[in-house]
């Protein structure tokens, strides 16, 4: 990702009624840039050069335009430790399990409605998932 800042300042408005002379600069549509892209690039240009370069060099982050802009709007967002994706994913699946009421469903009926391939996958994966979740909870209990 590279940042390109126009040396001649912010984009000029296109001529229109009551706007005076035409701008010497091309319009966004003439150069193939959407208003959204232009807006994002302008916000990226507000990031101090040192911070921008540091974000690009950080091996633990994959900077995106959205993340960099979010940090401009909320500087505290960059100081909050990002949770690992696997932790968020697992938590989300468990919340889905709870929200969708699987604990109160008939497990035999759910299993019976599956295809043979699905049932084979459940038989293969479920014991490993149970062992993983049990070890996760036991490990957390040991730390407490």
UniProtKB/TrEMBL annotation:
Highest taxon, organism lineage: Bacteria
Listed name of the protein: Uncharacterized protein
Region (Disordered): 1-40
């Amino acid at each position: 990702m590279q940042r390109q800042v126009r040396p001649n300042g912010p984009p000029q408005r296109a001529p229109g009624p009551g706007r005076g002379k035409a701008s010497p600069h091309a319009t966004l549509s003439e150069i193939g840039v959407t208003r959204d892209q232009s807006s994002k690039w302008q916000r990226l240009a507000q990031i101090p050069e040192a911070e921008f370069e540091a974000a690009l060099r950080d091996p633990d982050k994959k900077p995106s335009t959205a993340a960099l802009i979010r940090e401009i709007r909320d500087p505290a967002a960059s100081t909050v430790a990002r949770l690992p994706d696997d932790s968020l994913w697992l938590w989300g699946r468990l919340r889905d399990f709870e929200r969708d009421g699987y604990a109160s469903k008939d497990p035999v009926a759910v299993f019976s409605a599956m295809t043979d391939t699905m049932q084979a996958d459940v038989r293969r994966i479920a014991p490993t998932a149970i062992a993983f979740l049990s070890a996760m909870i036991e490990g957390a209990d040991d730390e407490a």
